[in-house]
Automatic annotation (TrEMBL):
CDD domains linked to this entry: Agmatinase_PAH (cd11592)
Signal peptide: none
Name under which the protein is recorded: Agmatinase
Protein family membership: Belongs to the arginase family. Agmatinase subfamily.
Organism: Takifugu bimaculatus
Keywords for the protein's UniProt record, in alphabetical order: Hydrolase, Metal-binding
GO MF annotation list: agmatinase activity; metal ion binding
Disordered: annotated span: 26-51
Source taxon at top rank: Eukaryota
UniProt keyword Kinase, yes or no: no
Statement: the UniProt record of this protein carries the keyword Phosphoprotein: no
One of the GO biological process terms: putrescine biosynthetic process from arginine, via agmatine
Lineage of the species this protein comes from: Eukaryota, Metazoa, Chordata, Craniata, Vertebrata
């Protein structure tokens, strides 16, 4: 409770009574924090922050990720949530094209502050939801080209993408753009599957092949080595010690985090296309992401949420929370 109390005075300043009278449309406007003097942004607005549920109902407004402002582009942003709504690469149950939309809906419960870690992302970096990549549902190759182009533009703006998937195919063109900007990256890949197949039904591009393509194209930094940790080694234990080893292996270079929701046990996250039993717990998922704090993260994704297989909405809710945890461990995020 101490952490929450620390955050309250600032929240009150931002949401004064007069501000709360601006009506239901206000939740899509910028929250401006000007306590540090003139803005560094041409728009005059320094940070974006979700509106407090004390003054704006969580269920109101157009559902952007974390109820952040929507922006057309990544210009001026330090990090952006971006959706890639495809399932054309799935091998079993489709439906991940609806993942980004459902994650945004369930993200209405996300807070402005991480009371577990004391991370205050919205007081540290400028974040917004920049919508979805305009994918081609009928042509996976063309979709990959569109994703690559979109991420080139996002990265060229100096913005770190936090991706709402979409099936895991998308990691391949995203990593093409990331490696183009940052060079070969370290990869932290959390998944029930390796996704390193060569061909699926004769096709090179599918959700089971992205990381083989990445290795073939030199997008991953081989010098940091490869390590696979089977789920059996994760059963019954905290993954915090493992993450110390991961940080050591990743070192100081750029790192990309790709988190497939099917790594979690389907008892917790059934809304996915290729579920496997005896998976990780949500607690372990959070430990993995929190354990990435200190890494030079240059991008993250949360993929394979397929809402139709989960009538509770819990898979998308979990995905939304994991994406918030990713935001909280980005470089330059302050901890109060
Ligand atoms: Mn996967």
């Amino acid at each position: 409770m101490l952490a929450l109390r620390t955050n309250f005075p600032r929240v009150r300043r931002l949401f004064s009574p007069s501000f709360s009278k601006t009506g239901p449309g206000f939740c899509c406007q910028d929250r401006t924090l000007t306590r540090d003097g003139p803005s560094r942004k041409a728009s005059g607005q320094r940070y974006n922050e979700p509106p407090s549920a004390e003054v704006v109902a969580r269920v109101s407004g157009i559902p952007t990720m974390a109820r952040l402002p929507y922006r057309e582009t990544a210009d001026g942003l330090d990090a952006a949530f971006v959706g890639v709504p495809i399932d054309t690469g799935t091998s079993n149950r489709p439906g991940a094209r609806f993942g980004p939309r459902q994650i945004r809906v369930e993200s209405a419960m996300l807070r402005a502050y991480n009371s577990g870690t004391r991370a205050a992302p919205y007081q540290s970096i400028r974040v917004a939801d920049i919508g979805d990549v305009n994918v081609n549902l009928y042509d996976l190759q063309d979709t990959c080209r569109r994703i690559r182009d979109a991420y080139r533009t996002i990265l060229a703006a100096g913005c770190t993408p936090l991706t709402l998937g979409g099936d895991h195919t998308i990691a391949y063109p995203i990593l093409q753009a990331v490696a183009e900007r940052h060079g070969p990256v370290g990869l932290v890949h959390v998944d029930a599957h390796a996704d390193t197949s060569d061909l699926l039904l004769g096709e090179k591009i599918a959700h089971g092949t992205p990381f083989r393509r990445c290795v073939e194209e030199g997008l991953l930094d081989r010098e940091r080595g490869f390590r696979v940790v089977p789920v059996e080694e994760c059963w019954y234990r905290s993954l915090t010690p493992l993450m110390a080893e991961v940080r050591s292996q990743m070192g100081a270079g750029p790192v990309y985090l790709s988190f497939d929701i099917d790594a979690l046990d389907p008892g917790f996250a059934p809304g996915t296309g290729t579920p496997e039993i005896a998976g990780l717990t949500p607690i372990q998922g959070v430990e993995i992401i929190r354990g990435c704090r200190g890494l030079s993260l240059v991008g993250c994704d949360l993929v394979e949420v397929s809402p139709a297989y989960d009538t509770t909405g819990n898979t998308a809710l979990t995905g939304a929370n994991l994406l918030f945890e990713m935001l909280c461990v980005l470089p330059n995020v302050k901890y109060l």
